[in-house]
């Protein structure tokens, strides 16, 4: 009797152990499946984002090419102006159209028209096109002999120290304005700074020429 009882206990213990093992496997399988599904979901999202980004990149590149082609033939085809205005907007390369339109009107002596396009460029993001627009606006003030307004823009640009815009350009233009105002000492200080800090650039070379010229006039 005792032998049968012990045998029954062992059988129950075996069944319980097997059940525990199955239960353990089932629990782990559920967690593993949830983990796998989670990873697959992330992969699908990531792949979808890459696909959308690639499509957007392709669209942006197509827009950029279109804007550049329209601008390059602007002098021969004035009708391109209307198309450029249509393409201008808040997008990364759409804002380039505003910059090119402003540049075109600056070159053709219409500073009011140029300013109207520059001022359409939003304050963010502060990338190359933003600072190019600010540079153009400062040059418009400079041409109108509104020196303080022009200097104010360049000083703010220098304070912001943009990664997407060359500091030698900002400093050189500041020096030019001070020179035009008659503040030779300030102009020389800025030209020397450009000469010393950016010796290998175009503006570094131009600054060295300016330094030589102004020093001989003192």
Question: Can you give a write-up of this model?
Answer:
The chain is mainly α. The protein has 2 domains: about 1-55; about 95-215, Tetratricopeptide repeat domain (Serine Threonine Protein Phosphatase 5, Tetratricopeptide repeat), CATH 1.25.40.10. It contains 9 helices and no strands. It has helices spanning about 1-70, 80-85, 95-105, 110-120, 130-145, 145-160, 165-180, 185-195, 200-215. The longest helix is centred in the first third of the chain and has 71 residues, at about 1-70. The chain starts with a helix and ends with a helix.
Features:
single chain; 218 residues; mainly alpha; Serine Threonine Protein Phosphatase 5, Tetratricopeptide repeat; 2 domains; 9 helices; 81% helix; 0% strand; elongated
How would the blueprint of this fold be written?
Blueprint: H1 2-72, H2 80-87, H3 94-107, H4 111-118, H5 128-143, H6 147-160, H7 167-181, H8 184-197, H9 202-217
Helix pairs in contact: 1-2, 1-3, 2-3, 3-4, 3-5, 4-5, 5-6, 6-7, 7-8, 8-9
Please give the number of β-strands: 0
In the predicted model, the low-confidence regions spanning at least 5 consecutive residues are: 4-10, 40-56
CATH class of the largest domain: Mainly Alpha
Query: What average pLDDT do the residues reach?
Result: 76
Q: How does the helix and strand content classify structurally?
A: mainly alpha
Number of helices: 9
Distance between the termini: 124 Å
**SSE topology string:** HHHHHHHHH
Summarize the structure.
The chain has 218 residues and is mostly helical.
């Amino acid at each position: 009797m005792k032998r049968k009882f012990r045998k029954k206990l062992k059988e129950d213990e075996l069944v319980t152990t097997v059940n525990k093992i199955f239960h353990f496997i089932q629990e782990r399988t559920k967690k593993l499946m949830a983990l796998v599904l989670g990873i697959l979901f992330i992969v699908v999202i990531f792949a979808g984002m890459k696909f959308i980004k690639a499509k957007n990149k392709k669209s942006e590149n197509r827009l950029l090419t279109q804007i550049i082609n329209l601008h390059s033939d602007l002098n021969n085809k004035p009708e391109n102006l209307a198309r450029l205005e249509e393409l201008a907007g808040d997008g990364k390369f759409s804002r380039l159209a505003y910059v090119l339109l402003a540049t075109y009107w600056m070159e053709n002596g219409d500073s009011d028209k140029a300013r109207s396009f520059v001022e359409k460029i939003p304050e963010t993001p502060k990338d190359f096109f933003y600072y190019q627009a600010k540079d153009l606006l400062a040059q418009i003030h400079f041409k109108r002999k509104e020196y303080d307004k022009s200097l104010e823009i360049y000083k703010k640009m220098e304070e912001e120290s943009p990664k997407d815009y060359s500091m030698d350009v900002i400093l050189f233009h500041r020096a030019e304005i001070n020179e035009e105002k008659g503040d030779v000492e300030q102009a020389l200080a800025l030209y020397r700074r450009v000469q010393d800090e950016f010796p290998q650039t175009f503006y570094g070379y131009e600054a060295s020429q300016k330094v030589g010229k102004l020093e001989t006039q003192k």
